[in-house]
Write a structure and sequence with these properties.
single chain, 142 residues, alpha/beta, four-stranded parallel beta sheet, 6 strands
Length: 142
């Protein structure tokens, strides 16, 4: 028996839908990161980008457990001296729930070219509607 080494042109990418309604934000992000990397596949290789496309719906209904909604902050810097902006996660979940989900997934994939390519295959939506029905996505259950 020999080990199969996947090539970039031989990878077939599927589409998956994850429903985040009522589920913890981190658990949904962890499953999305596994699908984006391709670690659920038998032919996974860490040096090849063999992940799938992931659609996350109902990001606004994702749950932050513990006291994270009040204690956790999203920081960004404007580029000017002293202009560090901090946003609490309860405010972020009300205004931009897609960004909160994307940040959670981004922290769980590698910080290299493979991870950057994987993030281009992530689509997050606040509501239950998405525009990728033509790709025939499969429901992924946590």
């Amino acid at each position: 028996m020999s080990t199969t080494m996947p090539k970039a042109g031989q990878i077939d990418r599927k589409w998956y839908v994850i429903d985040a309604a009522g589920k913890p934000l981190g658990r949904v992000a962890a499953q999305a990161a596994v699908l984006l990397r391709g670690k659920h596949k038998v032919t996974f290789a860490p040096h090849v980008d063999c992940g799938d496309h992931v659609i996350i719906i109902n990001c606004k209904d994702a749950v932050l457990t513990g006291g994270k909604a009040e204690k956790k902050y999203y920081y960004r810097h404007t580029g000017y001296i002293g202009h560090l902006k901090a946003t609490r996660y309860d405010t972020l979940m009300k205004t931009k729930p897609e960004l909160a989900m994307e940040l959670a997934v981004k922290g769980m994939i590698p910080s290299n070219s493979i991870g950057r390519n994987a993030m281009t295959r992530l689509r997050a939506y606040a509501g239950s509607e998405h525009k990728h029905a033509a790709q025939k996505p499969v429901e992924w259950n946590l």
